[in-house]
């Protein structure tokens, strides 16, 4: 590896660890500070933290890889995500910020669910915590896989060594700095990703010998088709990725952490501007990469490494190091957020409830740090499968959260009549439907259920039906719960 590249990457690692040390000194004395940054994030930090933790390695590797292979038909994923993110900011962000504070100052999503529905027996809290831990361990492993591929492809290290190096740095700053470290590093990482997703596709495009459409037609005429070789159901499945936003704990927890209700609007403008540029950049990277590699006769064995290949071929080692740092930023920002949310659930929703109710703040922070390490080790174990697809792993976990939590979050914020049995039914039906859709040995026209339609679609629909049906068939929520709902509505009207 070139000396310039090593220098750039070394500076990146030093900055990340330095932020972790700063955050360690600032905000880890109590659980609220460690898990939620004391609800005092600036809207710019919260917005880029949400974007960076959302996009992960798939925005620089997974999505460009899909575009490289299939062309314009993969763009529907990006379109669905942009629409879903905008709806999430509009529908969920302001209400969740107010409601979580009203609901006994909930600092985790399971905590919010339990307080929102007066879950005295902790059934909803436990089920939601299990969903978070199971799907986030899978989700985290996708980021670890991306790190392994990065180090193997670019640094000449073994895939396994890449897993440990990537996870090790993330664990260090997450372990000690908590939510503030994760959010501040996400902010820096989001800026790096933003620049990288402008620079790489722009430079690649300027070096093409023919107009982009003409070259893509030579690569494969189907790449210019928006429907491609798929179907209308394929487009629906791709755009349905947007439904997942309503149920992603590592994203919506940022709405809970921003300073106040008035900051949500600023956060939305910053976050959506960042996301649109990032999505367009990722799409352009895949398309321009396909055209450039065809013109230059470059063999790309793994489509998900096209960003890496372009970075190394087209740029000075110092710039290449910066671009590789962008991929590390994307990977690490998501891993850190997922580790922290999983740690929060293990600490607040298991340890504090079932092992030691009177645990001190320092003890809970210690348990949170140990939990970060345990989840990271499980993710590394799952990532040892070298053939794992980043986009496939992300899609499964994204669907699991979207179906289990998405309808539950929306109905809990907007429907006064929703009750605890309805919430439980919706979460269980949503998660079970996704798992069935992925693993059941059932086919339609020779296709597996997941190939026929993305599992989040049936999961989201059936979970919504279960929430409404069970809530209406069981006892109305207590007066205290409806009073809290009304107070939130009044506060939102005033805000």
List key phrases describing it.
two-stranded antiparallel sheet; 20 helices; mainly alpha; 495 residues; Sodium/glucose cotransporter
Give a concise summary.
This is Sodium/proline symporter. The protein is mainly alpha-helical and 495 residues long.
Share in helix = over 70%
The CATH architecture can be named as Up-down Bundle
Low-pLDDT runs = none
Number of strands: 2
What is the CATH topology descriptor? Sodium/glucose cotransporter
Q: Round the mean pLDDT to the nearest integer and report it.
A: 82
Radius of gyration: 22 Å
Our count of helices gives: 20
Give the termini distance in whole angstroms. Answer: 54 Å
Largest sheet: 2 strands, antiparallel
Order of helices and strands: HHHHHHHHHHHHHHHHHEEHHH
Query: Quick one: CATH superfamily?
Result: Sodium/glucose cotransporter
Subcellular location: Cell inner membrane; Cell membrane
Transmembrane segments: 6-24, 45-68, 74-92, 123-141, 161-184, 191-208, 228-253, 274-294, 306-331, 364-384, 390-415, 422-440, 452-473
Membrane topology: Multi-pass membrane protein
Pfam families: SSF
Description:
The protein is an all-alpha fold and 495 residues long. It has a single domain, classed as Sodium/glucose cotransporter, CATH 1.20.1730. It contains 20 helices and two strands. The chain has a two-stranded antiparallel sheet with strand order 1-2. Helix 4 crosses helix 12, helix 5 packs antiparallel against helix 12 and helix 16 packs antiparallel against helix 17. The model has no long low-confidence stretch (mean pLDDT 82).
């Amino acid at each position: 590896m070139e000396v310039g590249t090593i220098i750039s990457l070394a500076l990146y690692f030093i900055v990340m660890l330095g932020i972790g040390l700063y955050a360690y000194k600032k905000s880890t004395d109590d659980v609220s500070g460690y898990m939620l940054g004391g609800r005092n994030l600036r809207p710019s930090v919260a917005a880029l933290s949400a974007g960076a933790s959302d996009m992960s390695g798939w925005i620089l590797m997974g999505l460009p890889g899909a575009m490289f292979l299939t062309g314009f038909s993969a763009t529907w994923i990006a379109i669905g995500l942009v629409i879903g993110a905008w709806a999430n900011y509009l529908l969920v962000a302001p209400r969740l910020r107010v409601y979580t504070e009203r609901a006994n100052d909930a600092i985790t999503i399971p905590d919010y669910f339990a307080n929102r529905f007066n879950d005295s027996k902790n059934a909803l809290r436990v089920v939601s915590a299990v969903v978070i831990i199971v799907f986030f361990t899978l989700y985290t492993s996708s980021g670890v896989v991306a790190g392994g591929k990065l180090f193997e492809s670019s640094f000449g290290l073994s895939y396994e060594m890449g897993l440990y190096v990537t996870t090790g740095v993330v664990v260090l700053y997450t372990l000690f700095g908590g939510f503030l470290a994760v959010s501040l590093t996400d902010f820096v990482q989001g800026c790096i990703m933003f620049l990288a997703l402008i620079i790489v596709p722009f430079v690649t495009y300027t070096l093409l010998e023919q107009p982009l459409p003409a070259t893509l037609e030579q690569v494969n005429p189907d790449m210019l088709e928006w429907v491609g070789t798929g179907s209308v159901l394929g487009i629906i499945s791709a755009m349905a990725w947007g439904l997942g936003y309503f149920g992603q704990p590592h994203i919506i927890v940022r709405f809970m952490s921003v300073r106040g209700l008035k900051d949500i609007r600023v956060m939305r403008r910053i976050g959506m501007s960042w996301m649109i540029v990032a999505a367009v950049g990722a799409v352009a990277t895949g398309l321009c990469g396909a055209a450039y590699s065809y013109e230059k006769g470059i063999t790309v064995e793994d489509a998900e490494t096209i960003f890496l290949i372009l970075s190394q071929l087209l740029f000075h080692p110092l710039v290449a190091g910066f671009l590789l740092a962008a991929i590390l930023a994307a990977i690490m920002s998501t891993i850190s957020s997922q580790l922290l949310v999983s740690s929060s659930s293990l600490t607040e929703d298991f340890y504090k409830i079932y092992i030691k109710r009177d645990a001190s703040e320092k003890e809970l922070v210690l348990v949170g740090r140990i939990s970060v390490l345990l989840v990271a080790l499980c993710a590394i174990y799952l990532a040892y499968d070298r053939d794992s697809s980043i986009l496939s792993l992300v899609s499964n976990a994204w669907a699991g959260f979207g179906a289990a939590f998405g309808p539950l979050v929306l109905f809990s914020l907007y429907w006064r009549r929703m009750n605890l049995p309805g919430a439980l039914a919706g979460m269980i039906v949503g998660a079970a439907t996704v798992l069935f859709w992925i693993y059941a040995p059932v086919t339609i026209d020779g296709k597996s259920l997941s190939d026929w339609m993305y599992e989040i679609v049936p999961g989201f629909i059936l979970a919504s039906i279960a929430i409404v049906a069970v809530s209406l068939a069981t006892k109305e929520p207590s007066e205290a719960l409806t009073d809290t709902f009304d107070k939130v509505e009044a506060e939102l009207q005033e805000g």
